[in-house]
Structures are given as structure tokens and as C-alpha cells.
Design a protein that fits this description.
single chain, 316 residues, mainly alpha, Arc Repressor Mutant, subunit A, three-stranded antiparallel β-sheet, 15 helices
């Protein structure tokens, strides 16, 4: 169902207050009902959602997040889980090293912060696997604080609405961060609302390939629209890699087999997953090096592989 066309009441296109107010009002009316946004959310639930949502769409994250929070509702619960259980629960979300870093993060929170997710960006940035975006998102979405939340969606909204370009540069720039920071309201509650609203607009309306401009609350004020929607000046710098035949695909097949296996998997069973033996060797070695797989060897038998055992899992 297409989004309803918003009100086009006259406002000053150059006034950032008007832009923020229009987008925030749109968000209040159109925001998705996501569990990590609800009043009963926890800071830990928000942190887990932000890690899962990195390079993964909401539709795939929702069931995984729900199961994850049922099994490990606190950092201490995840810290005590087995690595194998964590990787199985991560399933097909992709980039499984995120699961290992999230468990490291849970252990650090448990050991150094008494099991409570820190409330400051400095402390959050010191956690394993937490970068500038994730720290800012936890401050805004978990604690309702003021921070500069700048993900791909927000960057695109600001690039078009303020910068007048089709898409932001491939890599985030210092100028972008400064520009985004200047738009954040001083009031913490308003800042948190702005962070969520600008991100949601980028996810639902101001999308990369097919923006729904008629449904945008700032269509009449968008610098990109006013400039005639110029094409992407950075197109030649953007690289897209096909999925088929890549190391990521090969690693994914191995991980899928190991997640389903009840016993260590013989190398012969893994060999049948991929036609290129050299590439498969490289991928297996990388999975072991990344801590995502464990090689079991004896003097008399071929190697076998399994998910790392790690800590003994708590009862589910």
C-alpha cells in the first residue's frame, strides 16, 4: 500500500526547524511498530537490534531478534551461552562475526558494567564491536539522549534534502558528520525523535533506487527535487560485487552445514558443497581463523569441522 501524500502547508525551505518538524510529524504518523521501539524495550534489546540490522533488512532481523531476546534477554544470559548456540541462533543473518562480537560485548558489559548497557558514548565505544553509529543509536533509541545518528538512510535523506545530490559519497566524510550534527536539536527528546524519524524516512520513502517523493513530507523543500533530481555523481566509485561464486557464498554454505550438524562434519562432506577446492580451502581456513569454525584433527583420520564449543550453554 503506497504511503499517503503528506500535507504541503507552506514553510520556509531553508529553515532546518521546519524540515525537522515535518519529518518528525510524518514519523509519528507512519513509524513501523518494531519491538525495539516499544515502551518496554531494554537498552540491551536496542543494542542487539542495531548489531543485527547492520547490512540486514528488518524483515529478516525481526524473527531472529525475537528468538534471541527470548533466549538471552540480558547481556549476562548471552555471555554464558555456548558459541555454537550463538552461531546457530544467528542463522542466516549474514556476517556471522557480528554474533561473536556481540557475545564479546555481552561479556564485557557483564564483567565491567554490572550487566547494564552503558549510558555514555565513551563507554559504549569501548565495547567490542560497537562503533560510532551503534553507540549513537543506543544513546538515542535506548536512553532518549542527544547524539548524532548517521546511518546509510539518514545520510541519504540529508544528502538529498540539504545537499541537493542523489546519494551521499561512498564513504562517510567529516563534512557529513558536521552537517548532521548541526541539525540535531538541543533537546534530548527532540534529538532522539529526529534520529528515528530521519532514519525511518530513508528506509520507507527516501530509498536509494525508487524514492517515493510524492509521499515525502518535505518534497517541496527537498534541494534534490528543486535541482531537478540530478544523477548520482559518485556512480563510477560505487562497486557492487556479485554474490554467486564469492568467498562469502562459499563460507555461507559451510556455515549452514555446520549449524545443522549434530556431530562434527567430515571434510569429505564439506568438499561436496563447492566446486573450487582451492577456494573452499581458503574459506575453511578463514572460518577457523575468524573463530566461526573449529577443526578437529587426529593422526589416523581426516579432519572434521564443527561450530566452536565455547562456554557451556545455559538451559533455554
Amino acid at each position: 500500500m503506497p504511503l499517503a501524500r503528506p500535507s504541503t502547508a507552506p514553510t520556509d525551505a531553508r529553515d532546518p526547524d521546519d524540515v525537522r518538524a515535518a519529518i518528525s510529524a510524518w514519523f509519528v504518523a507512519h513509524a513501523r511498530d518494531l519491538p525495539w521501539r516499544r515502551p518496554d524495550r531494554t537498552a540491551w534489546g536496542v543494542l542487539v537490534s542495531e548489531v543485527m540490522l547492520q547490512q540486514t533488512p528488518v524483515v529478516r532481523v525481526l524473527p531472529a531478534w525475537t528468538d534471541w531476546m527470548d533466549w538471552w534477554p540480558t547481556p549476562a544470559d548471552l555471555a554464558a551461552a555456548s558459541t555454537a548456540d550463538v552461531l546457530r541462533a544467528w542463522g542466516r543473518l549474514g556476517y556471522p562475526r557480528r554474533a561473536l562480537r556481540l557475545q564479546e560485548c555481552a561479556r564485557t558489559i557483564t564483567e565491567r558494567h554490572g550487566g547494564a548497557v552503558p549510558r555514555t558514548e565513551v563507554e559504549l565505544l569501548a565495547l567490542p564491536g560497537v562503533g560510532a553509529y551503534t553507540a549513537a543509536a543506543v544513546i538515542a533509541f535506548a536512553y532518549g539522549g542527544r547524539s548524532v545518528v548517521l546511518d546509510t538512510n539518514v545520510r541519504r535523506v540529508l544528502a538529498r534534502a540539504i545537499g541537493g545530490v542523489a546519494l551521499p559519497p561512498p564513504s562517510q566524510t567529516v563534512a557529513e558528520v558536521r552537517s548532521a550534527a548541526a541539525l540535531v536539536p538541543l533537546d534530548p527528546a527532540e534529538a532522539a525523535l529526529w534520529a528515528a524519524a530521519s532514519m525511518e524516512l530513508g528506509a520507507l520513502v527516501c530509498t536509494a533506487r525508487a524514492p517515493q517523493c510524492p509521499a515525502c513530507p518535505i518534497e517541496a523543500r527537498c534541494a534534490w527535487r528543486q535541482a531537478g533530481q540530478p544523477t548520482d555523481v559518485h556512480l563510477a566509485r560505487r562497486r557492487t560485487q556479485a554474490w554467486a561464486g564469492t568467498d562469502r557464498q562459499a563460507r555461507g554454505r559451510v556455515m549452514a552445514l555446520l549449524r545443522e550438524a549434530l556431530e562434527p562434519v567430515p571434510r569429505a562432506a564439506i568438499d561436496g558443497l563447492w566446486p573450487d577446492r582451492d577456494q573452499l580451502d581458503r574459506c575453511l581456513d578463514s572460518l577457523v581463523a575468524d573463530g566461526l569454525a573449529q577443526e578437529l584433527t587426529t593422526e589416523t583420520a581426516p579432519p572434521r569441522y564443527r561450530l566452536p564449543a565455547g562456554t557451556v550453554a545455559a538451559d533455554r
